[in-house]
Design goal:
Blueprint (H helix, E strand, L loop, with lengths): L1 E2 L4 E6 L2 E6 L1 H7 L2 E5 L6 E2 L4 E7 L3 E5 L4 E6 L2 H4 L3 H4 L8 E5 L11 H8 L1
Antiparallel strand pairs: 1-2, 2-3, 3-9, 4-6, 5-8, 6-7, 8-9
């Protein structure tokens, strides 16, 4: 897995990258009550706002971690947004994307670097 400074995780599965938020981010947000997901087929540029999350504490945006195309979204979150809190690194993923430059993954943090980042 790779991690961003925005507390997103990325997991490569074949030709796609699965994107979610870390347990640290889910804890900071509190109980998530709504998730607005992108449309499949949406082309995104790094740092585009892709997902909006509303929690009991605040609203937050998930940014595209790199350039690519959204190929699948986790529709289960529409009916069960709390899944992000319950299993942020597993079933609480947001979307899958095909990325334009797999070498860009090398610029992201590994788990050890992320754990140091969050202190």
């Amino acid at each position: 897995m790779k991690f961003t400074e925005e507390h997103e995780w990325l997991r490569v599965e074949g030709d796609t990258v699965v994107v979610g938020i870390t347990e640290h981010a889910a804890t900071q947000l509190g109980d998530i009550v709504f998730v607005d997901l992108p449309e499949e087929g949406t082309e995104v540029t790094k740092d585009d706002e892709v997902v909006t999350i509303e929690s009991v504490k605040a609203a937050s945006d998930i940014l595209a971690p790199m350039d690519g195309t959204i190929v699948e979204v986790n529709d289960v979150l529409a009916d069960n947004p709390a899944l992000v809190n319950e299993d942020p690194l597993g079933d609480g993923w947001f979307f899958k994307m095909e990325i334009e430059d797999k070498a860009a993954l090398d610029e992201l943090m590994d788990e050890e670097a992320y754990l140091k980042y969050i202190g």
